Each structure stands twice: as C-alpha cells, then as structure tokens.
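Worked example 3 (structure in, sequence out).
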C-alpha cells in the first residue's frame, strides 16, 4: 500500500470515528449535548482535527442523516428484490421503515427533524429523495396498476408517511403500547391502502 492510500485510509478512519462518537453522544445524551469539543474528547483527538473533517456540528448531523437514509434504502432494496406482488412491496417498505425507526430511535428522529425540514433537499439529502422515490414506486404498483400517479400518488405518499411516522411518534410518547397492537395497526393500514385502490366491479 502506497503513502497516498495509507493517508486516505487513515482519513476515512478518523471520519468514521467522529461520526460513531457523535451518534453515541446523541443516543446517550441527546442531540443538544453534541459539540465538537465533546466529540474530540470522547475519541481523544484535538478539536482542530474534527474541524478538518467537518465544518461544524450541523455538518456532522447532516452526514449522520445521510448515512441513516442510505442504510434504510439498503434494507428496502435487499428485501424488495424478490417481491413482485404490489402488497408485498408495500409491506417491505412499511416494515423496513418501522423497524428502522424503532431500532434506531435517536437517528430516526434526527433524520426526520433535519432531513424533512431541509430547504434544499435534492442537494443536501439525495438519499432522502431516493427513499421518497422508493416509497412512491412501491405505492404506484398498487392496483389498478399504472393508474396511481400525479396528485393521487402524492396523496397516498403523504398518507403513508403520516401514518407510519405517527405510529412511531405515538410509541415514543406512549411507552406501554403492546408490540402486537403495533403489528395490528400496521397490517390494517396496509390492508386499507391496498383495498382503497381496488377498482369496484
């Protein structure tokens, strides 16, 4: 391995260490507790080293969000590749988002608060745009195939996001919701989404 390759690998490791430390602080102390100084102290780097990789704390938060969306996209694509039925595709997206949001609560909240509220989504969060398109692609396969587009597709997309995020938020505040109840709610939501698109005979 040449000198250039070693430098690039070392740089990538430091960057990864910074992001890992930042996420740990967010999970254990909250986003408000995050600072460049605290990150530096936790991984025993000088503060200027952190600034060599990220302009400020906000840049670190943005990168964490991008990585979160990238992981969510990866999970959806992996589980969706063998699915052909419209309902199966909707189930993959719904449960992938639900599982990610419940297992990575702090990261999901960060992704939602920063990613959704971003002014220039296409530039700052291309991964969010990809995720949104995956959701819309899944919804567009619902029967009648090829008919769900335009305003109707946007309406279904907003219904999907609102429902899943709403259930996630309810679980954050109401700690005693039974897992079986969550599964029932998700199933009923999917049933209703599929049923609402069927053409009456």
């Amino acid at each position: 391995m040449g000198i250039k390759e070693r430098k690039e690998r070392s740089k990538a490791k430091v960057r990864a260490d910074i992001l890992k430390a930042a996420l740990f602080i967010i999970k254990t102390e909250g986003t408000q507790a995050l600072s460049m100084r605290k990150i530096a102290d936790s991984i025993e780097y000088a503060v200027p080293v952190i600034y060599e990789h990220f302009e400020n704390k906000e840049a670190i938060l943005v990168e964490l969000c991008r990585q979160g969306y990238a992981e969510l996209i990866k999970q959806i694509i992996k589980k969706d590749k063998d699915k052909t039925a419209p309902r199966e595709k909707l189930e993959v997206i719904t449960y992938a988002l639900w599982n990610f949001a419940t297992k990575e609560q702090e990261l999901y909240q960060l992704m939602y608060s920063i990613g959704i509220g971003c002014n220039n989504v296409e530039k700052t969060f291309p991964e969010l745009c990809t995720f949104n398109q995956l959701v819309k692609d899944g919804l567009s396969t619902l029967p009648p195939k090829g008919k769900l587009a335009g305003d109707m597709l946007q309406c279904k997309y907003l219904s999907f996001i609102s429902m899943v995020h709403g259930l996630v938020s309810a679980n954050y505040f109401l700690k005693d919701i039974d897992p079986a109840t969550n599964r029932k709610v998700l199933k009923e939501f999917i049933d209703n989404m599929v049923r609402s698109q069927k053409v009456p005979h």
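Notes: The mean pLDDT is 87. Residues 3-29 form the longest helix (27 residues).
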